[in-house]
Every structure is written in C-alpha cells, then in structure tokens.
Amino acid sequence: MVLFDMQQQLTLKITNNSTQQEIILTLVYAKCEHIERIELWDTLYALASDMTKPWIVGGDFNVIWDEEEKFGGLPVPLNEVDDFGQCINTFNLNDLGFKGSIFTWWNGRGEEDSIFTRLDRVLGNMELQQLFPGLEVTHLSKNCTFQEVVTENWVDDSLAGYQGSTFTIFNNKLKKLKRALSLWSKATFGDIFQKVASLEEVVLVHEAQLELNPTRMNRERLNKVQTELIRYLALEEHFWKQKAGMAWFKDGDRNTKFFHAQVNRRRKRLQLKKIQNSAGSWIEGNEQMAEEAINFFQYQFHEDVVPTSFEIIVHVPNMISVEQNQELLKQPTKEEVQ
C-alpha cells in the first residue's frame, strides 16, 4: 500500500501475508541543494512522530553523515552534515551498517580530480532491528551493466507459470542468476591475473615513453593505463579476500602474495598428516589415522561398568535421626504444595 508518493520520497506499507507482519518502507531520492532537502526532512519527521511499526528508510540522501564519508573535492559545509545527523537522531533511526566499500558514488575522474563519497545508506528504527537482528547492507560494484544483468535475470517471466514452492522458485532464480553473472564476469573482466600482468608491462612502456617525451598526451596515456591497472589490482585483491575468507581485512595494501599465503596456510591447516594416539606415539597414513580416530571416539562414548557395591555407605555417619528421615520421605500435602 502506498502511504506517501512525493518528489523526494516514496513510503509503502508492506504486509507479510503469512504472519500479517507490517513493515514501513521509505525510499529516498533527495535533492542536491541543501534548502530543497528541508522538505524531505519535514516529511520524514511527520512520519517518525507517530511511527510504531518497523521502519526502514533507504536511498540516495545526497549528503554525508560524517567527514570521513567523503574523499577529494571541496569539503561539505558543516551545517549540512549537522542537519542530517540531527534529523536521523530526531527520527530515532540507526544506520544499519554495510559491507563493501565505504563510498557509494564516484565522479568517474582519476588522480587529483577524483571524488568519492557516501551518499546512499539504509536506516532503520529499533522495531526493525528487533525484527531483523543483524540486518546489514551490501554496497555493490559501481557498474551499471552488473545491475542490468541482475535485474534481467531476476525478474524473469519464464518462471511465472512454474508450479512449485516459493523456496523452489527462489532457488531456481539464484541458479539462473549465478550462471548469468558467471558469463558476465568472463565477458567483462576476462582473466584477471593475465590482465594484471599485461597491464603492468603496458605501464612500463608508457612510463618509458613519458620519460623520453614528457608531453601532455603521453602523460594522459600513462594515467589511463595506470587507472586500469589499479582497477584490476583491486579486483585481484577482492578475489583473494574471498578466497581467504578474510572479511576483517579492510582498506589494506594490495598485497596479493599475502592473501595467496593465507589461502595456502588455510589448506595446510585443514590437512592431517599425522596424529598422536593415547600412548603418545605419532601415527601416519590415512588408514592408521582413521583407525585411531574410530578407537578414540569409541572409547569416549563407551559406558564404563559402575561398581554396585555400597559397602562404603556404612562408614558414612548418620546426620539426621530416624524420625527426621521419615518426615523427609513423606509425600507433601495439597496445602503444602499450595
């Protein structure tokens, strides 16, 4: 259900047909000018004033929340940053966090003319975070063709008449999208490692040409191939990050040897070449290690025979009298239970 359809925001009420759980979704596309964004803040304030349902607010706010969210270009006026931060606090919204690059917008230029900033974000109130704990946003690659591939293969009319559960249809969509993205990756990036090696050689050639003839054209050519090399180095770094499973490694040096070593180290950790038995001797060979492992777990779960002799009880002194013991053995009455 559409609640508000305005120039800078669209607010919907989404209801889960199974659970009847309602969520309020506000999609934002803010104006570039500070004065024009005031209208957006006012409409969001009106929504927040009596909001009791889970509320998610996301989109392009065209302003940063912190100075660290911008690199390059002129500094953003502090009053714009403060206004945005104050609005978010007033609306009782929290940034849901993100995975990926901190920046969501780039002006497409290189060197000293490049500007990176975070204009897009997703916010949520406490009710939303309680409903979906651990909810997090992923910043996708800044590549329009990637989004086109995802949209084209996800919104697929060929599955409209498919008979099956919702999960089955969802799984089929994922498989279809995976195949499409694999083909797109090969067509767009090709062999990343081969591309890096060839670009490194091209950079050396252009550097030599610039040294011999330092013209503006040669400098622009060098900058172009350097930018392309940096792009593929970033792809190579991302590949090894995924391979090594190191999500904690952010904004590090482009050291692919480090990631390669991490992958090999992990593989070595997962390989068992010898184990130590209960006697302290080392055993090698897959069959011998498997036999020792079986014996170990059989011993762990083996039930030992518990002695049934109670002769030691005669040496335990009586701490209560016979009358006290009889009182303890009595069944409780209904009055005592109440």
Q: State the shape.
A: extended
Task: Provide the helix percentage.
Answer: 40-55%
- Radius of gyration, whole Å: 32 Å
Termini distance?
Answer: 53 Å
CATH class of the largest domain: Alpha Beta
InterPro entries: Endo/exonu/phosph_ase_sf
Q: Would you spell out the secondary-structure blueprint of this structure?
A:
Blueprint: E1 2-5, E2 9-15, E3 22-29, H1 34-49, E4 55-60, E5 70-71, H2 78-90, E6 94-95, E7 98-99, E8 105-106, E9 116-117, E10 120-124, H3 126-131, E11 137-138, H4 144-154, H5 166-188, H6 192-212, H7 216-244, H8 256-269, E12 274-276, E13 282-284, H9 286-300, H10 322-329, H11 334-337
Parallel strand pairs: 3-4, 7-11
Antiparallel strand pairs: 1-2, 2-3, 4-10, 5-9, 6-10, 8-9, 12-13
Helix pairs in contact: 1-2, 4-5, 6-7, 7-8
Structure description:
This protein is of the alpha+beta class and 338 residues long. The protein has three domains: 141 residues, Endonuclease/exonuclease/phosphatase (Deoxyribonuclease I, Chain A), CATH 3.60.10.10; 47 residues, no CATH class; 78 residues, no CATH class. Helix content is 47%, strand content 14%. The chain has eleven helices and 13 strands. Strand 3, helix 1 and strand 4 form a beta-alpha-beta unit. Helix 1 runs parallel beside helix 2 and helix 7 packs parallel to helix 8. The longest helix has 29 residues. It is extended and about 105 Å long.
